[in-house]
From TrEMBL, chain A:
This is Ubiquitin-like protein ATG12. The lineage of its organism: Eukaryota, Fungi, Dikarya, Basidiomycota, Agaricomycotina. Residues 1-21 are annotated as: Disordered. GO terms for biological process: autophagosome assembly; autophagosome maturation; autophagy of mitochondrion; glycophagy; piecemeal microautophagy of the nucleus; protein transport. Forms a conjugate with ATG5. It is a peripheral membrane protein. It holds the Pfam family APG12. Keywords: Autophagy, Isopeptide bond, Membrane, Protein transport, Transport, Ubl conjugation pathway.
UniProtKB/TrEMBL annotation, chain B:
Belongs to the ATG5 family. InterPro entries: Atg5, ATG5_HBR, Atg5_HR, ATG5_UblA, Atg5_UblA_dom_sf, ATG5_UblB. Its main location: membrane. Residues 251-337 form the Autophagy protein ATG5 UblB domain. GO terms for cellular component: Atg12-Atg5-Atg16 complex; autophagosome; mitochondria-associated endoplasmic reticulum membrane contact site; phagophore; phagophore assembly site membrane. It comes from Steccherinum ochraceum. Involved in cytoplasm to vacuole transport (Cvt) and autophagic vesicle formation. GO terms for molecular function: Atg8-family ligase activity. Keywords: Autophagy, Isopeptide bond, Membrane, Transport, Ubl conjugation. Gene3D superfamilies: 3.10.20.620, Autophagy protein Apg5, helix rich domain, Phosphatidylinositol 3-kinase Catalytic Subunit, Chain A, domain 1. It is a peripheral membrane protein. This is Autophagy protein 5.
């Protein structure tokens, strides 16, 4: 164990003992090779704009499962024609921002299954915005809107409506 | 901390929970950081450019940069070099040439290195003391394409917050607990890691980390025979702990294979037949070639072993318990799988 001063051999408890050593290592290495095989399947990713981010003309895409999430971010930037310096925030199910080296296959496996209750129809939902969620929530403090208030709708307000529904959404 | 309504099991008292959380927090890994000799500025004091540090497992590379910088300025670089040094351009590589991830905790970086050594044919068994992980520090031209994340403490903090939220979401299906924290509290988590202060970190983390609740009746069960009853069947009439480790939807777990993929899947605390989800069952479900399902009773004939926080974890360990007591600071249980070598020794 790290920090322990014992330098002597660390044998495993007997319940972990293996049989024929050489053959076992070979078998283990072969098993590892099979686990390294990349998933060739594609998963459906649905991009949803949040706040005043522009809505994409086409928002459903098939992406190879073995891709890292970084590839999804780069793809999104290209589709939106946003430069590397422009702020782009991405979230899964409006809940959290995944690490760029998370694979699409892991994200799909984890968050499509769990989100069935949110009726996501088997898509991995990727939300994107140019502002972080906390800043957005701070920009529209709950105290300034009470239920029953009429909210003036204006021309660009499909996005505003999207944002208002976010504020009252439990997922936030 | 969990409050009691029945006799505490030997395995889930607040004292033992705190003990394991503190052991995890205080765990360290030895690092040996050497500046790439081709990049040492002129007039540097050569021969002294290696820095040794016993770094906390729960910390991150950007957080040890300030200490490293002070050392290099004091001992190695002359004034001219110090003036032009830009730590935003710093990046780390392992001795084998792989780029190090800034957003991975140091314990994870060390353990994944350990397991990748376990598949090298020339590696001797780990019968000697843990050896330092040798890193090369580059001072310029960071490969920004491959780095994925800006190598700054701020980007690292954001990545950390993202991992906390993902863990929260996995456990409870929403991030209410994380987003319910005030900004100062969220920042307090990161400050606790920066200052390496257990109390400061856990003051906030205890609000979002699952508690351990005794599920069992009075006497602790014999080793290897963990029969449990759901909280509602407890004869003492204990009310189930809403935040209990056995009530999560899924324990946040990732499996790391040597130089291989990172696997993630749902890890319910209890299996469909009501039994507690153990590490052995988890591994034989997801890596059956290394942990054959037929060997889920002792003696196990596994081809690999599992490291959590650098500790070879016993097969009967409960996943829910790991999720409450041995997560990293970011809430995740990182299980690193190594290959067993001769006769039970790693």
């Amino acid at each position: 164990m790290a920090g322990s001063p014992e330098p002597q051999s660390r044998t495993l408890p007997s319940s972990w003992t293996t049989g024929d050593a050489g053959a076992n290592i070979q078998e283990a290495l072969e098993a590892l090779e099979s686990y390294k095989k990349k998933d060739p399947n594609k998963v459906v990713v649905r991009f949803k704009a949040v706040g005043n981010a522009p809505i994409m003309k086409q928002n459903l895409y098939k992406i190879t499962a073995s891709n890292r999430f970084q590839a999804v971010i780069q793809f999104l930037r290209k589709e939106l024609a946003w430069k590397a310096g422009d702020p782009l925030f991405t979230y899964i199910n409006l809940a959290f921002a995944p690490a760029p080296d998370d694979t699409v296959s892991n994200l799909f496996k984890m968050y499509t299954v769990l989100a069935q209750s949110f009726a996501t129809e088997g898509h991995l939902i990727v939300n994107y915005s140019c502002m972080g969620l906390r800043r957005m929530r701070n920009a529209f403090p709950l105290s300034s809107i009470t239920s029953g208030d009429t909210i003036q709708a204006r021309s660009y307000d499909h996005r505003a409506v999207n944002l208002i529904s976010l504020i009252f959404d439990d997922a936030l | 901390m969990a409050t009691y309504r029945g006799s505490p099991s030997a395995f889930a008292t607040p004292a033992s929970t705190t003990l394991f959380r503190r052991l995890t927090w205080e765990g360290t890994v030895p690092l040996e950081i050497r500046v790439d000799s081709k990049e040492l500025p002129a007039n540097s004091d050569r021969g002294l450019e290696t820095y040794y540090i016993q770094a906390p497992r729960v910390s991150y590379l950007p957080l040890i940069v300030p200490e490293l910088k002070r050392f290099l300025l004091d001992v190695v670089f002359d004034e001219a070099a110090a003036r032009i040094m830009k730590e935003e351009d710093w990046w780390f590589e392992s001795e084998e040439g792989s780029l190090l991830k800034w957003h991975w905790p140091l314990g994870l970086i060390y353990d994944t290195h350990t397991i990748s050594q376990s598949v090298r044919p020339t590696s001797s068994s780990l019968s000697q003391a843990p050896s330092p992980l040798r890193l090369i520090l580059h001072l310029a031209s960071p490969p920004t394409e491959k780095l994925l994340l800006a190598p700054s403490a701020e980007a690292c903090k954001q990545a950390f917050m993202g991992q906390m939220k993902e863990a929260d979401f996995l456990r409870w299906g929403s991030t209410k607990r994380m987003t319910g924290l005030r900004k100062a509290e969220q920042d307090g988590l990161w400050e606790g890691i920066k200052e390496h202060n257990f109390d400061e970190y856990w003051r906030v983390a205890s609000k979002i980390t699952p508690t351990t609740t005794p599920l069992r009746s009075q006497s602790p069960p014999p080793m290897g025979a963990m029969h449990t009853r759901p909280p509602s069947a407890d004869p003492q009439g204990a009310t189930p702990d809403r935040d209990g480790a056995y009530n999560v939807r899924s324990v946040p777990v990732r499996i790391y294979l040597p130089e291989g993929p990172v696997l993630q899947d749902l890890v319910p605390p209890l299996l469909e037949n009501g039994s507690v989800h153990t590490l052995q069952q988890f591994l034989s479900t997801h890596l059956p070639q290394l942990f054959p399902p037929s060997a889920s009773e002792p003696p196990f004939h596994d081809l690999g072993y599992a490291l959590v926080q650098g500790v070879v974890t016993p097969p009967e360990t409960e996943m829910a318990w790991l999720g409450a007591c041995m997560t990293g600071a970011d809430g995740w249980v990182n299980v690193c799988i190594g290959v067993l070598r001769d006769g039970g020794q790693r």
